[in-house]
Design goal:
Order of helices and strands: HHHHHHHHHHHHHHHHHH
Protein name: O-antigen translocase
Main location: membrane
Distance between the termini: 32 Å
Strand content: under 5%
Pfam family, one: Polysacc_synt
Structural class: mainly alpha
Number of strands: 0
Helix content: over 70%
Keywords: Cell membrane, Membrane, Transmembrane, Transmembrane helix
Number of helices: 18
InterPro entries: Poly_Biosynth_Transport (IPR050833), Polysacc_synth (IPR002797)
């Protein structure tokens, strides 16, 4: 059946092959990420994991603001240009946006560095760690550019290159420098040095890789691309949506840092990392599905659009189910790999895993909305669920600790997925769940 489907459906074949490449590198990245956390735990204990995860969280949140939503919209723009036979405009668009992102990220980095002491006091209860914040600020510009380069490669459907410039490669390079600095006796502060070096290295390499793949024809006098106003109007909703989405995903870690010791944050971060195995499938398949959503929508082939959505969600379900079963059966074992102290996160892991699995079986719902000109709908859904997430974390963390954070995160994850599924049904007349065939009669 699969062989027949691959031969007869070119869209499914592209999804399957591209998704397989992305999934391989994503799984490799996850394995490397867990090994990275394990090494960090062996070298610096739960406190070291907590400090690094707090800085990484801060960096990720600021990078979303620095990217201005262009890391998502560039996939849409490239798809639209290719479908309208205007590929020669892609290079100009890419470089224009890159200049904007460099300026914005640099300003954010300067602001973060200026606030290093009060932020250190807030996050670590001491100003002595302000240097950690300064090196986090230095890391911001290369992270923004690296993410933008990777998403541009995704838009060009260069899935192999896109997959290489992901977190797994960041962890590998960071790990190598952490080991070096550790044996030189530099201590915990060298972890953020190592991350900074890794990001600069990959940002430079990814730029030259992407530059070699961009169409060589320059902007002609007879063809015009998107105006600045059009770019901003398109991207601002995605900026708010992405910012709120990341805030929702990282609110638990930030609030745990404020309410509980670093060791608790480290335990929770590890449980979250294991639970996120379910979302690995979603991210991998999204790498090929996002440009395809944009392409089919631009061509107005809504029958193919619907089938492709269903096929992608079914593929996510089938590949993520074994992961959920493994987490449900072996939660203590998986956490215990990182050390005996980490098994305290068993309940949190089970709660988080359920929420992540629900997200996977719902499909690429936010990306479907973003790639089909419904980015404002996506923004509104994420805004409401982010507010709910913050309130739940404020209420539950002081009472239940890391389990309260897990409940808040899982609840908000389920809510935004359900809301997005309903929005897609209202707009397009079908639900994304693979085994539910409800079609609106028009």
């Amino acid at each position: 059946m699969l062989h027949k489907k691959l031969n007869n459906d070119i869209d499914f074949r592209e999804l399957f092959k591209g998704g397989a490449i992305a999934l391989f590198f994503k799984v490799l990245g996850v394995v490397v990420g867990y090994f990275f956390l394990w090494i960090l735990a062996q070298y610096y204990g739960t406190k070291g994991v907590g400090v690094f995860q707090t800085l990484w969280t801060l960096l990720m949140i600021l990078s979303v603001i620095g990217k201005m939503g262009f890391d998502t919209s560039i996939v849409k723009f490239i798809g639209a240009y290719k479908e309208s036979k205007r590929s020669e405009l892609i290079s100009n668009l890419f470089h224009k946006i890159q200049r904007w992102l460099f300026i914005i990220a640099s300003l954010l980095a300067l602001l973060l560095a200026a606030l290093s002491e009060p932020l250190s006091q807030l996050l670590f209860e001491t100003k002595a760690n302000s240097n950690y914040i300064i090196f986090t600020a230095i890391s911001l510009v290369p992270l923004v550019l690296l993410n933008y380069h990777a998403e541009s490669l995704k838009g060009l459907k260069k899935i192999l290159s896109f997959s290489i410039f992901q977190n797994g490669t960041i962890y590998i390079i960071t790990f190598l420098f952490i080991v070096y600095f550790y044996h030189q006796g530099y201590g915990l502060k060298s972890t953020i040095w190592s991350l900074c070096i890794a990001l600069f290295t990959l940002a430079i390499i990814s730029y030259f890789d992407l530059k070699s793949r961009l169409p060589k024809v320059e902007l002609s006098a007879t063809k015009q691309g998107y105006t600045n106003r059009q770019l901003i109007n398109w991207t601002l909703p995605m900026l708010f949506s992405n910012s709120l989405f990341l805030l929702m995903n990282w609110t638990d870690t930030i609030m745990l840092s404020a309410f509980l010791p670093e060791a608790n944050v480290g335990i929770y971060a590890t449980a979250l990392k294991i639970a996120a195995l379910n979302s690995v499938i979603l991210v991998a398949i999204n790498s090929i599905a996002m440009p395809k959503f944009a392409e089919l929508f631009e061509r107005k082939e809504m029958g193919k659009f619907r089938r492709f959505v269903k096929h992608s969600t079914l593929l996510m379900f089938l590949t993520s189910l074994p992961v959920l079963i493994a987490i449900l059966v072996f939660p203590s074992f998986l956490l215990g790999i990182f050390g005996e102290d980490f098994t305290a996160g068993k309940t949190a892991l089970l709660i988080l895993a359920f929420g992540q699995f629900f997200s996977t079986i719902s499909g690429s719902v936010i990306n479907i909305l973003n790639m089909s000109n419904r980015q404002k709908t996506a923004r509104n859904i994420i805004a409401i669920c982010t507010f709910i997430n913050v309130v739940l974390n404020l209420i539950l963390i002081p009472i239940y600790g890391i389990n309260g954070a897990a409940i808040a995160t899982a609840t908000s994850t389920i809510l935004w997925n359900l809301a997005s599924v309903l929005a897609i049904y209202r707009i397009f007349g079908f639900v994304t769940y693979p085994f539910i065939n409800i079609n609106k009669i028009r």
